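Weekly modeling sync, notes
Attendees: S.R. (lead), two postdocs, one rotation student

Agenda item 3: backlog of single-chain predictions. S.R. asked that every request posted to the team notebook include the full sequence so nobody has to chase files. The rotation student volunteered to paste the first one in as an example of the format we agreed on. Action items at the bottom.

Example entry:
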Amino acid sequence: MIGRFLRDASGNFAIAMTVALVPIMGGVALAIDYAELTRQKQATLNALDAAGIATARQIVTGASEQDIVAYATSFFHANLGPVDPDSATLHVTLPSNEFGGGTLKLAAELNYKPYFLPVFQELLGKPQSNNVAYDADTEIRLKNTLEVALVLDNSGSMDRLGSGSGQKRMDLLKEAATQLVETIALQAAQMKQVEKPVQFSLVPFAASVNVGTDNADASWMDTDGRAPYHHENFDWATMPTGRKVVPSLGVHYKVGEGWGIEEGQRVTRFSLFNELRRITDEQQTCTGSGSNQTCTTTYTYAPFASWGGCVETRPHPYAYDTTEPSAAEPATLFVPMFAPDETDRRDGNNRAAMGNWWADVTTGSNDAARQRYMPKYFQAAPKGTAAKGMYEGPNGMCSSTPITPLTDVTTEEGLATLKGAIGSMAALGGTDVPEGTAWGWRTLSSTEPFAHGRPENEIGNDKVLIVLTDGENTYYTPSSLGYNDLATNRSIYSNKGYTAKNYPGQTRTRLYMGSTVASSIHSNANFTSAMNQHMNTVCEAAKASGVIVMTVALDLDAANSVQAAAIDSLRSCASGSRFRKDPNDPSKPAKLFWNATGATLSDDFKDIANELSNLRIVG
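Predicted structure, as returned to the notebook:
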């Protein structure tokens, strides 16, 4: 064939071949240019997406608009790969600093210069095109709303020195928490287009949680005494004739002429605090003389104690969730803590009862009866009796400072409020991590008891729980603390009542409800095991609702079996990171868990700040 082509003199093959070469070469040219155009288009898209994420991160650092645009352009050009930077132009539209939007927009123009297309167009006698235009854009929605609950251990062990630091754990915690809030607040303050971009709540916890005395009349508090456990430690049948306390339709009332003008008033734990009085002065006035003299004594009273703000744990299944309190279901309401006065008598080892803070009045030898004898609360304490404060008398086991609800830290006032609350924390009392965690979750909720959180389904908002503790969960038998248990309470009084008191209609006390732990065994170890199960319950429920959980174990010893269990519980509780992989298994996200020491706590909280920063810019 080739030989014939070469010998052919007619020129037909040459002409035909020449004509055919034009579209063939043109096709090749177009194929080459198309492949290169496709490659540069993809490179431009990649650079555009990368610049979007990087620029969003710059925005939350608080950089100026000029610097942000310059950064975006430089980052875009540096990642173009095969594309000549002079051939690509970037346009940046920042989120409005005044209102609405919250979206970073980047648009790119690529002017591709073909290699062969102009030559092919010249052969065809058509106008030459020196470039091919391509446009692309991307949008990044800034997740600039964040709600964070700081659930921080305020138990007595936080007064110890942090390992490797020379400072007390509480002081280290205050510094680290303050730095965390300041860091995130500084970033958030730049995001002016969204109201309350970052809010923090603070839940200090020890053996109980303090919801604040200003909530005494809140709708979610059991102000009428209707909750099934409101009166579980009170035996109103012990009241004398003429001064009875009688239940009616779920509410207890004063009944009898002996009450005078108080007859018909409700009787609750709140009213009991008001009944507790002490004599501060007494004046005797006498008339007549000799055998006809009549003397009367006038007393001046003062309060003995007022409610400190702590509440008991709700019964299962409401103990560790965000079920909104409702008067229609009294068990969902929150009951103020009131530590009953225990027996005045001492045991054979001369040990007193931990909760002995008021005169028994009755002289019976039955210590349980002395404890539940109610007339004593209505008899004033003698002159010289000092008033009781937090962690004393009826406020026993209530030691922590009040909850600070979600607060906008982008304002000077809000930031000062939260920092002040962190600074006022004090180390005292036991440890109930699940109780603190449950209340942290409640502060993030959009429903009562605090209802400051954004709707749970709001797009672009993250709810985060940060839980720190330096010890295992604790609930104590009286003997383990050096007290007697003559009244057979089986435990000290705390936020779950006495472990000898089963929940009405149940065969388990509130501490054991919702757990598989044997309720017949009353020991510190058993109490801790039940509370560890409660911790798992609240963590899994919070995560299932979409809350991100970060946990910190402070100075816990993995060689100690009890503390090792606490470490495992905290690690299991933590969510997985959205941005980091597990270094031991890259197929899994890294756990948001930090096993901190006193020496590393500050750096660990900086890691937490980085994680929170990342949450605000991914969309």
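Discussion: group reviewed the output briefly. Confidence is low (pLDDT under 50) at residues 97-101.
Action items: rotation student to repeat for the remaining queue; S.R. to check formatting next week.
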